[in-house]
Records
---
Amino acid sequence: MKIIIIIPTFNEEGSIGNLIDEVIKETSKITNHKIELLIVDGKSKDNTVKIVNEKKNKYQNINFIIETEKKGLGGAYIEAMNHALYVLNADAIMEFDGDSQHDPKDIHKLVEKLDEGFEHIIGSRYIPGGTIPKTWKLWRKFLSFFGNKIAKVGLSLPTKDSTSGFKLTLMSKFKNDLPLSSEKILSLRHAYKIHLLHDLIALGAKTTEVPINFLDRNKGISKSTFEDISESLKIIFILRYRKIRNAFIVKNKLGVNKKTTDRN
Ligand SMILES: Nc1nc2c(ncn2[C@@H]2O[C@H](COP(=O)(O)OP(=O)(O)O)[C@@H](O)[C@H]2O)c(=O)[nH]1
Ligand SMILES: [Mg+2]
């Protein structure tokens, strides 16, 4: 299979160089798939672009695009996913942060689950063996944990980590049914993940979770903001509303059909 690892960057000069080296090192151990990287940059103002171009000259399997317009993390992923699918002919796509919070040593665990027949594999912080940074203050742990719980309960998701940014999806099977355009996706920010996860589960994707060590951010600063949290809540609400509305429409249709059949 051709697996494209998408790595979004925005001002990640402190981590992206080493990270690319590490990802290349770890993926070269996986010999039963063709693995390439696709870095998508959001018009960084630091040396990120220069560093990625140097790595692109050093390694063969690095692709690099710059967002046509910086729209947010979801916008970057949607643009990169389309490039991966329709220019690079990806069968599966991995989402992997460019700030060294995801450990390249965990990549093989997700790929092994793909080999076992799973179609959507989540690198999970909230299953046994998974970790969050020890240095996180209590409020961050609380926010992350309960954010997940709200998504899980609000959307009746079977997953323990519903906001993880580290995942692998067999896109060749689902690409035509997923909202992979800026018109269809409900959020161009971090909340795009909740929308895609919700739809993959609704489409019946065989989903599993593997434990990952979510590392501390040593370099650069987080780009997630309060708006990302409020937008996530909004997306959960919209998706829930759609579910209730669709169930209502189906129920009404069945009611009308039953009445017609009874009359006949
Ligand atoms: N291309 C692109 N990358 C982004 C954008 N926003 C964030 N990123 C990258 O996405 C990854 C995750 O973002 P981060 O700020 O660490 O989110 P957090 O881990 O949820 O705090 C990092 O590698 C960022 O550099 C964006 O608008 N465009
Ligand atoms: Mg991060």
Note: The beta strands are 2-9, 34-41, 62-66, 92-95, 120-124, 167-169, 207-211.
---
Amino acid sequence: MRIRAQMAMVMNLDKCIGCSTCSVTCKQTWTNRDGVEYVWFNNVETKPGVGYPIQWEQQLRWRGGWKLDRSGRLRLRAGRKLWRLATIFANPNLPVLDDYYEPATYDYDALVSAPAGNQMPVARPLSAITGQPMKITWGPNWDDDLGGSQLYARTDPNLAAMTQKVKFSLEQTFMFHLPRICEHCLNPACVAACPSAAMYKRENDGIVLVDQNKCRGWRMCISACPYKKVYLNRLTSTAEKCTFCFPRIEEGTATVCSETCVGRIRYIGVMLYDLDKVEQAAAAKDNLVEAQRGCFLNPFDPAVVAQAEADGIPSDWIEAARQSPVWALVMKYQVALPLHPEYRTLPMVWYIPPLSPILEATTALGGDSASADDIFHGITQLRIPLEYLAQVLTGGDVDLVAGVLMKLAAMRSHMRAVTTGVDPEASGVGLEASELEAMYRLLAIAKIPDRFVIPKRHKEEGAALAAWESGCVLDAPTTVRMAGPVPVAAPQFANRSGRRP
Ligand code: SF4
Ligand code: SF4
């Protein structure tokens, strides 16, 4: 057993209002520069919808993440090392600018310099890439709040097996918002695919970063990341990605997206995990969520604590792991689920599925949205949202999603009984009243110290960390390493027109 600590996040989708404040504050902080106009380290998508970049979940097209070969071993979906080397100058699996969008500004000068006339002057859109006038036809939030969903949502890859059913229920408004950042995976495909060893995972906190000095712009990380959370800076020709705001994290402060989140949906904490179990979990044949949970270690277990100390994890980090809201939501209450576990990267941003569409539908069916029985009934009846949520959060395991929603429904029902002075019934979901109330405090009314439990980086780690940061924490054979960097000018984006969902 080799124990490592990982900074991780949980987002409660029930509370996301889709305001995109997180995206804007992140952009203002990290990507408000030339060359990264189209880059969104944090973006918020409407589901069902095609997401950003377009259809990022369509791995048949992008070939991101990992798959099992015939003998059950993990392989990058992008192909073997020789194939990747052979296609390094013409990688067929890269998104182009049209799959993101052509960023625009407006000709504001026309508003103040236009000659006097009968018409109001107009600020026409100008391409932020070429400076030329352009027509805006696509953007990262184009299908926000199901706008144009009749046209776009049907091409959501998660709906592939259920298009007919959803076509009718869409009018009854089944939707939720999905904020996304880099998953800072335990088994990151981006790190494994990088031929220059520029992508790396920090040993002390698991944050995945790009060494800008080593990056040669091969962009293998972009195609290998199944979440499409690495971008190319079109001016420097180097990869850039969400840094989990590591300078803030090192000082014990929450990420910008979390601190400014209007819905207070985000939780940050430390998870201890067994590095030796990572490959096995990523290569699990089924029950992928359970397999990933099997990597996480109980910070209250004396044997785990002793090994963690032996592996150099500071005592305040072990204490933070005990207080971690992520541990509580992922392991104690088991209400958080990973995003697309079938990509096998073992993502470390987990999501609490939204109960609201179920409550809406329960009411529409004539039930009481505060009654656990009616909600349970609604959950089992509503096959469409459950199947959809299962596609997104469990790799298709509907029972797992239903189990989480039932816990959330039981919590609501219990708290309603407590608030109205009625004797609460037994939850029926395996949680005691005290646990339901503790879960409620964490999910509904938690203050900043409960939502963000972030130990500071130890200054004395600095030298060791700097030495380590030239490599990768994962020395398991799953992380393919290739030859050293070969200097080459990275090709710029091809601007291919006419690609729309
Ligand atoms: S989500 Fe982040 S860590 Fe995971 S593969 Fe993509 S870029 Fe790498
Ligand atoms: S700021 Fe919070 S509530 Fe608003 S879109 Fe982002 S995650 Fe959702």
Note: The first strand starts at residue 3 and ends at 12.
